[in-house]
TrEMBL record:
InterPro entries in the record: DExx_box_DNA_helicase_dom_sf, DNA_helicase_UvrD-like_C, DNA_helicase_UvrD/REP, HelD_bacillota, P-loop_NTPase, UvrD-like_ATP-bd, UvrD-like_helicase_C
Cited PANTHER family: DNA HELICASE IV, UVRD / RECB / PCRA DNA HELICASE FAMILY MEMBER
The keyword Coiled coil belongs to this UniProt entry's keyword annotation: yes
Gene3D superfamilies: 1.10.10.160, P-loop containing nucleotide triphosphate hydrolases
GO cellular component: cytosol
Keywords, alphabetical: ATP-binding, Coiled coil, Helicase, Hydrolase, Isomerase, Nucleotide-binding
Organism name: Halobacillus halophilus (strain ATCC 35676 / DSM 2266 / JCM 20832 / KCTC 3685 / LMG 17431 / NBRC 102448 / NCIMB 2269)
Record-given protein name: DNA 3'-5' helicase
């Protein structure tokens, strides 16, 4: 029997043993918690039985409140325990399926050799003395990712441990049985990675715990108190590393950080659902996720119509009027920069002296407080604007209270009382009874009843107005933003012409209650400066994926919103498609820190894992400085460039290629166009016969099958086969769109096909012909 066979059998035996222990643990856990579910049901059903309700006297009301609170706490404690229990059962089940993926034999200096098995969760022996499996996030496990056999070291909270790694082994264990085993040398075995990367695209992102690479591990376990900026090539595992990092943080700081203190700014909804399964798969709760657009929409007046970054991009890609386009580009560039934020700061400073805009406060056609009076009151106050606004609010509410009293003596509420619908009357009666403690005897006094009803009517009528005051709607915010463009003089970087146009366009849009994408952050920023910054102190770790698409202003704004958060920015300046024309400085390049004194750490990922080697070789040559990008050694076909004589031939060729890809077993085939319009047109021609799904809104989700969508919507996502249906000089003809083409082409995992009629896009000319096949 050879040594390998022997080892295989030993490992198999160990797996059986581990499975038995896991199964025992799981059953024991279920047994011990059987009563828990019953308790919860019982508590829910009998919630009110154990609560003493008595509201007659204040003392008793307090007691009632305490008793409800106690009962609710008991229930929520049980529900929390149930949640924990449920999570643990799921983890055991997952471990039974695949208990570990790695083993290292480690000899600490002068110590014995210890076999360390690494999996998605830890497992202890019966006596709770030894680890049978170590969690992949444990300090000792980091050696697995960082070293090949030989001298090694790892960090622990109490210092560094050194020693020698005698063996490094990888396992593929599925459904509880050993399917593969590799002893590895230099890096984490190419075999396992080959195996993982060779699979089909999935509609949900996979966890990479078993094959995390050394440079990714550095990001995942990054522990210094600095802002982390990761610049990584397309497909280099930025998002994967971010997700693993979140899981790591939840483990490392499990006593102080929970999942809802971690927030991920995601590029779009498709992406949100794409990454949502990674953490639960690792047995962790999901972090919070939001798109910037959603966040902004939640903070702005609802009657604003916001342009999304995708709409902005679609405009930039579609407008054929080059003059108008250039003016818009100038506006975007201007409004994205930190200089613009400084201008806004100066403007706000000026407002402490003059220039605030307020609304008249009116009720039923009568003016209660005139705008000038508010203005006068505001400028009598001193201090920061938000503090003064707070005082104005209190003052206005007082004015409203006084006004309300007077209104009660008017005729209109009496008239309205007469026309009250029966249910309103009863409601009023009940409310009066509750709040005033009236009984039937006193209430039948008609005069008092009438007075109370009138009071209630006035109160109710005035409530919306008061609410508006509470929400600071007495400030004319839109007008304030607009006014800035009257007051500023033309900034040095713009021509008079451009400036005039920016002023005009901004005002025109504001008057239509339309907010351009580039105005969203500045507007919110102004709102915060006037109304008081709405900061979130709960978030401790903030991640921004596709960070290259955020303007410097936007990042600075987000930083101010989350003062307690540590920042993790991940992106690729080669995929900066939202500022493709404006060329705003990228944070991802060194030397572009927001503030000189800011502590920033730059880490880089240059190796691309998503695509086969021939695809990476092709795509990297689309970039002027792509030579630094390395391909992971996974073989495949060279990309194919199909030249067709006319439109019909092109469609025919696309059809044939789809059929071939399907035959080859590719399940997710994406046809990535440049614009939404092109996607719609293509869908109209081939959609039906292939049951292809058209995706043109960022809110749509992504499933397996044939998809037709503009490339920019596929950010962060990948497909088995990608087809770029029209890469001619009629479509991709601007240097600015190189990054867009690169982003689309790098979505391909296994196959890439490009099509064109007429003349090939000049952007492809930088790619040498031996890197693709001509069809
Ligand atoms: N260490 C790894 N082990 C296994 N798969 C990996 C590893 N690193 C990356 N991958 C795979 O490579 C693909 C790309 O990863 P990911 O989406 O995280 O890259 P990215 O840098 O965010 O890409 P992009 O910038 O193009 O959106 C995914 O399928 C991911 O599972």
């Amino acid at each position: 029997m050879d040594e390998n066979h022997d080892e295989w059998q030993k490992e198999e035996k160990r797996i059986e043993n581990i499975k038995r222990i896991l199964s025992e643990k799981k059953n024991e856990l279920i047994e011990n918690n059987k009563e828990l579910m019953g308790d919860i049901l019982e508590l829910r059903q009998g919630f009110w039985d154990d609560v003493t309700v008595n509201m007659d006297e204040p003392d008793e009301a307090i007691e009632t409140y305490a008793s409800i609170k106690q009962q609710a706490e008991l229930l929520s404690e049980r529900e929390r325990s149930y949640g924990q229990f449920h999570k643990l059962v799921k983890l055991y089940a997952r471990q039974e399926d695949s208990p570990y993926f790695g083993r290292i034999d480690f000899q600490e200096e002068d110590g014995e050799i210890e076999s360390i098995y690494i999996g998605i969760g830890s497992l202890m022996d019966k006596n709770k003395e030894d680890f049978l499996i170590y969690d992949w996030r444990a300090p000792v496990s980091s050696m697995y990712y960082d070293y090949a056999p030989g001298p090694v070291q790892y960090e622990t909270p109490v210092g560094e441990v050194t020693g020698e790694m005698k063996l490094k082994r990888q396992f593929i264990i599925r459904r509880g049985s050993l399917q593969g085993m590799f002893d590895t040398g230099l890096t984490i075995g190419d075999e396992l990675l080959q195996h993982v990367l060779g699979g089909n695209a999935t509609s949900h992102m996979k966890s990479i715990v078993a094959t995390i690479q050394k440079e990714q591990n550095q990001i995942i376990r990054y522990d210094k108190n600095k802002m982390l900026i990761v610049q990584g090539a397309a497909g280099s595992g930025k998002t994967s590393a971010a997700m693993q990092r979140i899981a790591y943080l939840l483990y490392r700081y499990r006593t102080s950080i929970s999942a809802d203190q971690i927030l991920l700014f995601s590029p779009n909804h498709m992406f949100i659902s794409y990454v949502a399964s990674v953490l639960p798969e690792l047995g962790e709760d999901n972090m919070r996720q939001v798109t910037f657009q959603e966040y902004a929409a939640g903070r702005l007046d609802r009657d604003f119509e916001l342009e999304s970054p995708f709409e902005q991009l679609e405009y930039l890609l579609s407008d054929r009027d080059s003059q108008r386009l250039q003016r818009r580009v100038a506006a975007i560039r201007f409004k994205s920069a930190l200089d613009y934020k400084n201008l806004l700061d100066d403007y706000v400073k000026g407002l402490t002296e003059k220039g605030m805009k307020f609304r008249n406060i009116t009720f039923r056609g009568q003016t209660i407080v005139r705008a000038e009076e508010i203005h006068h009151y505001f400028y009598k106050l001193t201090g920061r604007i938000p503090n003064r606004i707070e005082s104005v609010k209190v003052w206005l509410l007082d004015q409203l209270d006084a006004f309300q009293l007077k209104e009660q003596d008017k005729d209109w509420p009496v008239e309205e009382a007469a026309f009250l619908a029966k249910h309103e009357y009863v409601e009023a009666f009940n409310e009066l009874e509750e709040h005033q403690g009236f009984n039937e005897d006193t209430f039948d006094d008609f005069a008092r009843e009438q007075k109370l009803l009138v009071k209630r009517i006035v109160e109710r009528k005035m409530r919306p107005l008061k609410r508006k005051i509470e929400k600071l709607k007495f400030i004319k915010l839109r007008r304030l933003y607009e006014q800035m463009f009257d007051m500023l003089s033309c900034p040095a970087e713009l021509s008079e012409e451009e400036w005039k146009d920016i002023c005009l366009e901004t005002k025109k849009a504001l008057n239509k209650k339309h907010l351009y994408a580039e105005d969203v952050t500045p507007y919110l920023y102004l709102q915060d400066q006037i109304e008081g910054r709405s900061v979130n102190t709960v978030i401790r770790h903030l991640f921004i994926d596709e960070a290259q698409d955020y303007s410097p202003f936007q990042i600075e704004f987000i930083k101010q919103l989350f003062p307690n958060a540590r920042f993790n920015l991940l992106g690729d300046y080669n995929q900066a498609i939202h500022n493709l024309y404006t060329k705003a400085p990228s944070l991802l390049e060194e030397g572009e820190e927001l503030e000189e004194d800011r502590k920033v750490e730059h880490l880089y990922l240059m190796r691309s894992y998503r695509s086969t080697k021939p695809i990476v070789e092709f795509t990297k040559h689309l970039l002027p400085d792509g030579e630094k990008i390395e391909a992971f050694n996974r073989e495949g076909q060279k990309p194919r460039v199909h030249k067709e004589d006319n439109e019909d031939e092109l469609i025919k060729s696309i059809r044939e290629t789809i059929l071939s890809r399907q035959k080859e077993g590719h399940e997710t085939i994406a046809l990535l166009t440049r614009t939404k319009q092109e996607a719609k047109e293509l869908h109209a021609r081939i959609g039906e016969s292939f049951a292809a799904r058209l995706i043109y809104k960022e809110s749509q989700s992504f499933e397996k099958g044939i998809l037709i969508l503009p490339g920019y919507l596929a950010k962060g996502i990948e497909f088995d086969a990608v087809m770029l249906p029209e890469v001619s000089n009629a479509t991709y003809n601007k240097e600015e769109e190189r990054k867009l083409l690169y982003t689309a082409a790098t979505r391909a995992m296994h196959e890439l096909d490009l099509f064109y009629t007429g003349v090939m896009s000049p952007l492809l000319q930088s790619v040498s012909e031996d890197l693709y096949e001509i069809k």
